[in-house]
Write a sequence for this structure.
């Protein structure tokens, strides 16, 4: 160690209080290691084993080889990615329109703000049961409305048809999360610097121009964060599917999370190795997707105003 | 004084021995007990009464009971067994072969098997050893509304089994009157929709070939299988099942049949009683509901129209790691007698794997019900278990998705269904 460094520390009296640092870091580190790092590492370790009670057998890459040919897994991957790619765009687009409406102080804005936000407050269990009723073939409001409009031929078991089951659930999550996105965007809109908006107005910039050339660039970071958050949420979706369809019909709504659960707890086996393999592969896919999104969306120039 | 010492020591030692003996006698052995049926009061009451009687006869043994719903119990047990913290006795069903494969269950060879039906013991046998106390047994029954059936002009023959064309005709007549021919739903169970396919294929193939089919030793492309699936398809195309089939839950399908909107028939396990015989305000069938039971219809080209399935349901097993195996066995033995078998039938009104005599039933509802069950089961040749109890892994998952759900719902045709099932093995 250079003598000067030691001297300067002594001069300023800034010796590192290792005891205090350790005391502050240890609880958080312990919790992190016990509940995040260890389970993650253990899951990866499990994926190379057949994990049975009282014994583990190393199987090398056998679980990964099986996973590569597992049609149900790939079906669930396709469903989940479809969900994760469509839902954020729908949610954020609609949320932006609603936030702009509230920002423009449409009549009844306070009521609409509460009404549109309410679905976020409900749990997926409640939402799932609610929408099971709404989609009911015989007396669900969707089919009742269609019949009332003379479109009875379009009435169907929305969650029972492989063609409509996934879109129907995507619609439910969008309905549920639009309010959350709207509130965040509304906060972003209210934090915009007034002078920039006023400058645009002085330049005779209309609503459309202000939106495209001023507002959207200024809230771009918020929009992108919401998209990434929604994407991550949909990549993990489980509750709604479990309550409504359990992955039926014909795996049309099977997601990776429901498939992992089925393989871990519903297939007649104690083996946790294969479900761990699915979890490990999915973790890598989600991580890669989020990093890619972040890279694509990164702001090359820092906004200043 | 010295002479007195040995005698005092002996007296003290004798007293200590007596006190220790008394302490041992008073030490109560506690058996932990986890069971499904938290909300199924007839079954729960039967077991609770059995526990009370067992504890009265065995003052040194106490059972610490915890009641669950099945899903929560299964999830909890999987974790507890792994961690070595499972109870001494717990609920299980014979399809949970993973318990036996991993050596978690107590060998029950010493149970009084003479008082248990041989097929029930067989259902719980694994590699030559029995592992479960088969309390609940059930058959797949075709319930119908006698009044509606008569109004449609359909006469149920004395054999209680309609011919294939007559059954199709019945479906069409009901549909034409706006009545759902059969109340079934797969919203929360992996098997109700498969009952139709299962009973039809069992009759067409007979017990041995059907078993081969489920175990992958007979191809699903076998012409007999394809023909039978086409017949089932003709029924579903005629409108056999409700439009809400995909999302209708088990409890809802009971109500759909007997109350609202009302269906002509209901294909269900004989444990129909556990929900339908509750008071109407608790989801039971209306008072004086004209309940009838008929046999599943004959199937075109059937090898065995008298074939039907019988399954073991709720059972109790012992934890191999228990510290009190003798007490667990004694507890199980307290269930196996004609008296207990009949008490189960009288109170629970579902069949049992314990030997019993329905002729001696005392409750009027139970006596009538089991008389009907006896008629539909007369001369039956049984296949033990339903497909999801026989299948494992991917074939089971595909069977649930295809035969329980998509095929009866009409989402996929016969060729697709056969292709999916073939690829599952």
């Amino acid at each position: 160690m250079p003598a000067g460094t030691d001297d300067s520390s002594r001069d300023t009296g800034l010796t590192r209080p290792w005891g205090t640092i350790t005391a502050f870091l240890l609880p958080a580190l312990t919790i992190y290691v016990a509940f995040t790092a260890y389970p993650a590492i253990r899951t990866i370790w499990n994926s190379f084993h057949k994990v049975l009670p009282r014994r583990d057998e190393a199987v090398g890459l056998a679980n990964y080889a099986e996973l590569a040919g597992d049609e149900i897994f790939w079906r669930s991957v396709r469903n989940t990615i479809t969900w994760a790619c469509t839902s954020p765009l729908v949610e954020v687009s609609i949320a932006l329109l609603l936030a702009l409406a509230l920002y423009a102080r449409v009549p009844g804005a306070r009521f609409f703000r509460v009404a549109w936000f309410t679905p976020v407050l409900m749990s997926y269990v409640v939402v799932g049961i609610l929408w099971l009723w709404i989609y009911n073939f015989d007396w669900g409001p969707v089919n009742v409305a269609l019949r009332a409009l003379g479109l009875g031929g379009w009435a169907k078991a929305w969650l029972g048809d492989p063609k409509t089951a996934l879109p129907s659930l995507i619609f439910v999550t969008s309905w549920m999360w639009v309010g959350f996105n709207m509130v965040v965007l509304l906060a972003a809109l209210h934090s915009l610097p007034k002078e920039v908006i006023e400058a645009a107005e002085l330049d005779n910039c209309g609503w459309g121009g202000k939106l495209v050339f001023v507002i959207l660039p200024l809230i771009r970071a918020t929009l992108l964060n919401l998209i990434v958050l929604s994407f991550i949420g949909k990549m993990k979706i489980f509750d709604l599917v479990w309550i409504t369809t359990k992955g039926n019909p014909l795996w049309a709504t099977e997601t990776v999370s429901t498939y992992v659960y089925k393989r871990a707890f519903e297939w007649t086996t104690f083996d946790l190795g294969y479900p761990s393999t699915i979890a490990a592969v999915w973790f890598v896919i989600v991580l890669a997707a989020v990093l890619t999104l972040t890279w694509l969306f990164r702001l090359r120039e820092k906004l200043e105003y | 004084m010295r002479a007195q010492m040995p005698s005092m020591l002996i007296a003290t030692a004798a007293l200590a021995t007596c006190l220790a003996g008394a302490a041992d006698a008073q030490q109560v052995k506690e058996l932990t007990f986890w069971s499904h049926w938290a909300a199924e009061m007839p079954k729960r009451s039967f077991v609770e009464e059995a526990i009370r009687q067992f504890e009265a006869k065995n003052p040194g043994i106490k059972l610490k009971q915890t009641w669950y719903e099945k899903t929560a119990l299964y999830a909890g047990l999987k974790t507890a067994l792994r961690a070595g913290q499972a109870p001494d006795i717990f609920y299980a069903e014979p399809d949970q072969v993973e318990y036996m494969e991993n050596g978690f269950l107590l060998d029950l060879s010493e149970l009084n098997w003479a008082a248990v039906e041989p097929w029930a013991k067989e259902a719980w046998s694994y590699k030559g050893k029995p592992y479960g106390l088969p309390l609940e047994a059930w058959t797949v029954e075709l319930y119908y509304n006698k009044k509606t059936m008569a109004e449609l002009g359909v006469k149920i023959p004395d054999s209680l089994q309609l011919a294939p064309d007559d059954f199709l005709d019945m479906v069409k007549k009901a549909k034409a009157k706006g009545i759902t021919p059969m109340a079934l739903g797969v919203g929360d169970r992996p098997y109700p929709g498969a009952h139709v396919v299962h009973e039809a294929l069992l009759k067409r193939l007979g017990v041995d070939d059907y078993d081969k089919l489920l175990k992958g030793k007979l191809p699903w492309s076998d012409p007999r299988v394809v023909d039978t699936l086409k017949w089932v398809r003709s029924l579903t195309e005629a409108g056999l099942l409700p439009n809400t089939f995909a999302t209708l839950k088990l409890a809802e399908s009971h109500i759909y049949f007997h109350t609202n909107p009302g269906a002509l028939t209901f294909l269900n396990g004989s444990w129909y009683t556990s929900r339908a015989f509750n008071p109407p305000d608790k989801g039971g069938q209306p008072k004086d509901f004209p309940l009838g039971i008929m046999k599943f219809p004959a199937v075109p080209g059937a090898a065995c129209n008298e074939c039907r399935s019988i399954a073991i349901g709720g059972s109790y097993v012992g934890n191999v790691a228990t510290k009190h195996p003798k007490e667990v066995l004694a507890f199980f033995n307290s269930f196996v007698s004609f008296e207990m078998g009949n008490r189960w039938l009288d109170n629970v009104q579902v069949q049992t794997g314990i030997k019993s005599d329905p002729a001696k039933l005392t409750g009027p509802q139970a006596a009538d019900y089991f008389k009907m069950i006896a008629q539909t089961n007369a001369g039956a040749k049984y296949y033990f278990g339903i497909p999801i109890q026989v299948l494992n892994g991917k074939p089971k998952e595909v069977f649930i998705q295809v035969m329980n759900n998509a095929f009866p719902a009409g989402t996929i045709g016969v060729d697709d269904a056969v292709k999916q099932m073939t690829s599952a093995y």
The first strand of chain A starts at residue 49 and ends at 52. The radius of gyration of chain A is 26 Å. Chain A has one domain: 71-297. The CA atoms of residues 221 and 298 of chain A lie 8 Å apart.
